[in-house]
Amino acid sequence: MKMLIVEDESKTGEYLRKGLNEAGYNTDLARDGTDGLHLALTTNYDLIILDVMLPGLDGWQILKSVRHSGQSTPVLFLTARDAVEDRVKGLELGADDYLVKPFAFAELLARVRTLLRRGRNGTEPTTLSVADLELDLLRRRVMRAGKRIDLTAKEFALLELLMRREGEVLPRTLIASQVWDMNFDSDTNVIEVAVRRLRGKIDDSFDTKLIQTVRGMGYVLEAPDPE
Fold it and tell me: What angle do CA 59, 65, 68 make, to 5 degrees?
């Protein structure tokens, strides 16, 4: 799942991005309102975490524009503005939740998971399944043939990407940008190592292999055709 953080305070923004990445989510960070609105309107996010006081455009303006565009993406205001009228204003403009700084990260994460559970008007799936492999997006849990499989945050993100694009060959450049938020460097084997480790957990102990290498192109996850 992919989130947008719009936060101009550098330390807070990096703290949020690091914590959410470690929890298994992909994040983009915008440091002013103009960039935040551009990303919100041009990228498909599962959740937006939004400050109110921002350079360029403030959080109120961003939320108005997002809702005016017809987007129902869940929005969580995270701000130092703790007056009742500010909370009411945020919710009336279309925010889904309002959390006041300073905050405990555990509470933020709980609210994030609650908003994701609601999804976009209940239309977003909360589990992904391919053959006997199941990925629970909310509980961050993976099962295969009824057996629990423990993954790191990056392994989970990689598996989620492969399952969302089931049957599609994903080039290394796309995997690098989506999972590691970096440009692909042909001199590094980080992707090959990650795929090898993921295979070791979800494929090696099972007769049916789901992750395949397409030489010269990338990787694909798909269930084999029934004979």
Answer: 140
> What is the pairing mode between strands 47-50 and 2-6?
parallel
Task: Look up residue 136 and give its DSSP letter.
Answer: E
What are the domain boundaries of the chain?
A: 2-118, 127-221
Length of the chain: 227
CATH tag for 127-221 (out of 1.10.10.10, 3.40.50.720, 3.40.50.10420, 2.60.40.60): 1.10.10.10
125 preceded by cis ω (within 30°)?
no
Whose tokens are 């009411």? That residue is 88
Distance CA 13, CA 51 (A): 10
pTM exceeds 0.85: no
Task: Return the DSSP state at 186.
Answer: T
HSE-up (13 A, CA, CB side) for residue 99:
19
Q: Could you list the pLDDT tens digit for every one of the 227 residues in the chain? A: 789 999 999 999 999 998 998 888 889 999 999 999 999 999 989 999 999 999 999 999 999 999 999 888 999 999 998 898 998 899 888 899 999 998 889 899 989 988 887 765 455 567 899 999 999 987 788 999 999 999 988 899 899 989 988 999 998 888 887 787 666 555 678 889 999 999 999 999 999 999 999 988 899 999 887 65
Amino acid identity for residue 137 in this structure: L
Judge contact between 49 and 7, C-beta under 8 A.
yes
